[in-house]
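[Discussion] Sanity-checking designs against the backbone

I'm trying to build intuition for which residues belong where. Below is a structure token string of 302 positions. I'd appreciate it if someone posts a full sequence so I can compare it with mine line by line.
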């Protein structure tokens, strides 16, 4: 089969040799053409999708597909698959746990105290004193939830449909979850319904001195509302990995805000060692005439 690799962010010179090694009978190209059978994409150049006239599968290199769905050239009726990469799932759970523990054990406060040369112990809490609310119980949220339960935290999750996860309280309405939440983690896909979900009204429902952890998309968060919640003390700290403009401009005042910890959209990166077997699996399913795994529900947006 003829397979296109198209990305302005993931490096073709890195990925293509690994893909060629895993799929030696196929031919990889870097230019879109009408006779491409499968397209492996992440931020493809403008116009790429519109040139795929006979493509049997568009395989994303990422879990989030909102930009592909918004591309006017996306061929209608062609299967679009998200990449469920076990390495990325594990990395995301590690980032969630790292931020929750940083807040829970007051490390963000101790870093500030170190800068001021202050020796002051903060009140110690047990994990069982805290409730972590996870927005989104898909592959990422479910894995993080299981691991937080194992650490002894109370865990609640919000999703469109009820989820049965051992030790996790499931909510399909947002307000009841927010009212019991000490640490809020956003792992939602970005859709019309979730755009701006981290807004002032919802943040006000969180328990006092909570933390907000946004590892999903910048557009989930209404930044002005978060800053008001931080400045009032209602939210104690925010951990932000994603932003409306990336890279975050050096002039942005967020860099200097004492209540914000910034990471450069690095909470979970695609891991080739675990991603390529999943890509190969879908290529082989197309070759055999089978339905690929992890197809996107276009109507739902993920």
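Best answer:
Here's mine. Compare freely.
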């Amino acid at each position: 089969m003829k397979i296109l690799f198209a990305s302005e962010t993931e490096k073709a010179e890195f990925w293509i040799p690994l893909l060629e090694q895993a799929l030696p009978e196929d031919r990889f190209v870097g230019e879109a053409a009408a006779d491409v059978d499968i397209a492996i994409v992440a931020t493809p150049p403008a116009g790429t999708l519109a040139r795929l006239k006979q493509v049997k599968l568009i395989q994303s290199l990422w879990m989030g597909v909102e930009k592909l769905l918004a591309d006017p050239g996306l061929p209608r009726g062609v299967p679009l698959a998200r990449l469920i990469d076990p390495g990325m799932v594990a990395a995301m759970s590690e980032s969630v746990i790292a931020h929750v523990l940083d807040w829970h054990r007051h490390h963000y406060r101790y870093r500030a105290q170190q800068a001021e040369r202050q020796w002051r112990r903060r009140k110690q809490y047990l994990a069982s004193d805290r409730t972590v609310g996870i927005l989104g119980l898909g592959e990422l949220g479910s894995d993080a939830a299981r691991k937080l339960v194992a650490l002894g935290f109370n865990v609640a999750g919000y999703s469109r449909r009820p989820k049965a996860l051992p030790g996790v309280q499931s909510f399909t309405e947002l307000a009841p979850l927010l009212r019991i939440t000490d640490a809020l983690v956003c792992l939602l896909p970005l859709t019309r319904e979730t755009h701006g979900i981290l807004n002032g009204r919802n943040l006000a429902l969180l328990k006092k001195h909570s933390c907000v952890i946004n590892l999903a998309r910048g557009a989930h968060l209404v930044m002005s509302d978060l800053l008001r919640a931080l400045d009032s003390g209602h939210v104690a700290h925010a951990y932000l990995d994603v932003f409306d403009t990336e890279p975050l401009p050096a002039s942005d005042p967020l860099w200097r805000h004492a209540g914000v910890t910034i990471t450069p959209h690095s909470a979970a990166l695609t891991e080739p060692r675990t991603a390529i077997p999943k890509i190969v699996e879908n290529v082989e399913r197309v070759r055999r005439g089978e339905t690929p795994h992890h197809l996107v529900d276009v109507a739902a947006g993920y």
